[in-house]
Automatic annotation (TrEMBL):
It comes from Candidatus Enterococcus murrayae. Residues 4-182 form the Electron transfer flavoprotein alpha/beta-subunit N-terminal domain. This is Electron transfer flavoprotein subunit alpha/FixB family protein. PANTHER family: ELECTRON TRANSFER FLAVOPROTEIN ALPHA (PTHR43153), ELECTRON TRANSFER FLAVOPROTEIN SUBUNIT ALPHA, MITOCHONDRIAL (PTHR43153:SF1). InterPro entries: DHS-like_NAD/FAD-binding_dom, ETF_a/b_N, ETF_a/FixB, ETF_asu_C, Rossmann-like_a/b/a_fold. SUPFAM superfamilies: Adenine nucleotide alpha hydrolases-like, DHS-like NAD/FAD-binding domain. Belongs to the ETF alpha-subunit/FixB family. Signal peptide: none annotated. Pfam families: ETF, ETF_alpha.
Length: 308
């Protein structure tokens, strides 16, 4: 039996439960048993086989050092075949600490999994997103981090067994834990948006000019990595492997070339409209409609037409 552990983030419980899909894929044809680890859980969860519940009111659930101690103790008892963690700001503090503690490798930001007779291969972008690397994991447990919204769990109706776990000798970190708050537009995270108006390196105007168009389409504004690197937009609205993974009904790509790093941030998008002066841009080959022209001019004219 293949035993997997997923870390439940109280702030992103739905995305945490999607990690069950990672464990099931890693198991291949083996039977699976998926545990979830919750620290001071704020709500009941479904779909898992068991939930290891740690009630420690004095411990902040975002204390990465203490959480690493807890996961290590839980693993020593249950001996998991895989440990999967969301690649949030907090998860990126926990995962490498835990990997060092358990003396295993960590495959960060995985986007796909292949299991065959040659082994369990985790796929992730490499060389700034220019290629996809398949990494064979031979150590145990297999450790990986995953962006929210990349994998998707299904049929989450099963009532799990709840197991109380009392960790030993926990000492709170002396470092003050600050709450990590991600910015939203009109209360909507770009990962939850049905319509996204996204600007890339070919969009020459300030992105604030896109807000009117996004409002007309009842959507949100996003950007590619190029604009974040140029300090023209915050990372919280970046789409891509180093940003967020999105699944809108409509993705309006304005001046986006479409590198592998960016494409990996698009999952199950229903319709793509690409506006670009470069007809050879990879994004055009994903699009239902391609507009050959200046992205900023197109956005301005479309916004005017919609207002009319």
């Amino acid at each position: 039996m293949f035993k997997g552990l997923i870390l439940i983030d109280n702030d992103q419980i739905d995305y945490s439960l999607d990690l069950m899909d990672v464990v099931n894929r890693l198991a291949g044809e083996e039977e699976t048993f998926v545990y979830g680890l919750g620290i001071n859980l704020t709500e009941k969860v479904k779909g898992l086989d068991a939930v290891i519940n740690v009630e420690a009111p004095a411990i902040h659930s975002k204390d990465s050092r203490v959480l690493t101690d807890i996961i290590e103790q839980v693993h020593r008892k249950y001996q998991f075949d895989s440990i999967i963690i969301l690649a949030t700001e907090f998860g990126r503090m926990v995962a490498p600490r835990l990997a060092m503690r358990l003396e295993v490798g960590l495959v960060a930001d995985i986007t796909d999994i292949h299991v065959d007779k040659r082994g369990k291969k985790l796929v992730r972008p490499a060389f700034s997103g220019n290629i996809m690397a398949s990494i064979v994991c031979e150590s145990s447990p297999i450790m990986a981090s995953v962006h929210p919204n990349v994998f998707h769990g299904e049929h989450l109706t099963k009532e799990p067994e709840y197991i109380d776990f009392i960790p030993e000798e926990l000492k709170a970190s002396s470092i003050e834990v600050l709450e990590i708050v991600e910015s939203e537009q009109n209360g909507v995270d770009i990962r939850e948006a049905e319509v996204i108006v996204s600007a890339g390196g070919g969009f020459t105007q300030p992105i604030e000019q896109l807000q009117d168009l996004a409002d007309e389409l009842k959507g949100v504004v996003a950007v590619s990595k190029q604009l974040v690197d140029r300090k023209k937009a915050p990372r919280e609205i970046q789409v891509g492997q180093s940003g967020k993974t999105v699944s809108p009904d409509l993705y309006l790509a304005l001046g986006i070339y479409g590198s592998t790093q960016h494409i990996e941030g698009l999952k199950n998008v229903k319709e793509v409209i690409s506006v670009n002066t470069d007809l050879g841009a990879p994004m055009n080959y994903l699009a239902s409609i391609v507009v050959h022209g200046d992205a900023a001019e197109f956005a301005r004219k479309l916004s005017s037409k919609l207002k009319e």
